[in-house]
Amino acid sequence: DGGITQSPKYLFRKEGQNVTLSCEQNLNHDAMYWYRQDPGQGLRLIYYSQIVNDFQKGDIAEGYSVSREKKESFPLTVTSAQKNPTAFYLCASRRTGGRGYTFGSGTRLTVV
Amino acid sequence: DAKTTQPNSMESNEEEPVHLPCNHSTISGTDYIHWYRQLPSQGPEYVIHGLTSNVNNRMASLAIAEDRKSSTLILHRATLRDAAVYYCILRDDSPNAGGTSYGKLTFGQGTILTVHP
User: Nearest-CA distance from B44 to chain A in Å?
Assistant: First the structure.
């Protein structure tokens, strides 16, 4: 079945460390997105990419970086510059011209 | 993206219909109304979307007011698996959306739906 796979499901990071969250899709979707969700809050956009080798900052990009070397993959790196990285991270994709978005099951990152 | 207003929470009994309201008084002519739902510790799931006419699919129905300033998501027979946070989102899907056409979804707080057995 086609879908989006995020890994790992749970991730613990020490302060000052960079960590990379994986997002892979086999839906042949062109656009991919990273969102962050804090407890009791809605989702906020971190980065998005409409095509390979191109990506744009969302509303809260500071302290994060991404790459889009392959259509299927859109990894997110949480750097040490992100002051409050503990959150639930969600990856999504969308077919160009499509209305609906497909979300992954998320990665819960905790800084210890 | 235009803002939406939803009740913080609603309750329903199993196998009864549920009507989830959403107000969007500042909606523009090219804004589509999207509904997503999110189960605990999972990613949001697409439910339905519409522009002007009422829409039906296997999951739900979407009733859109004639002036488009409000809409209602209808679950015809609630089940325990429908307990989730439901988000009503406006998005400009028009071809001429220009810089906004990258597909951003602006999520509000949503409505927490509790379904009682």
Answer: 6
Give residue-wise pLDDT tens across range B10-58: 999 999 999 999 999 999 888 889 999 999 889 999 999 999 999 999 9
In this structure, the strands spanning A31-37 and A43-51 are antiparallel
Please give the sequence-ordered ranges of beta strands (E in DSSP) within chain B, or none if there are none. 9-13, 18-23, 31-38, 45-50, 55-56, 61-64, 70-75, 84-92, 111-116
Structure tokens at B67: 């002036």
Contact B41 A43 (CB under 8 A): no
pLDDT tens for each residue of A51-80: 899 999 999 999 999 999 999 999 999 999
Q: Of the candidates A56, A91, A101, which has its C-beta nearest B102's C-beta?
A: A56
Looking at CA atoms only, how far is residue B43 from chain A in angstroms? 5
**AA letter at A35:** Y
Check if the beta carbon of residue A76 is closer than 8 Å to that of residue A23: yes
Inter-chain Cβ pairs, chain A and chain B, closer than 8 A = 56
In this complex, do A48 and B108 lie within 8 Å of one another by their Cβ atoms? Answer: no
| Residue B7: Cβ-neighbour burial (10 angstroms; 0-12, 13-18, 19+) | middle
Q: From chain B, pick out residues whose CB is under 8 angstroms from the CB of A43.
A: 44, 105, 107
Q: Three-state SS for B100?
A: helix
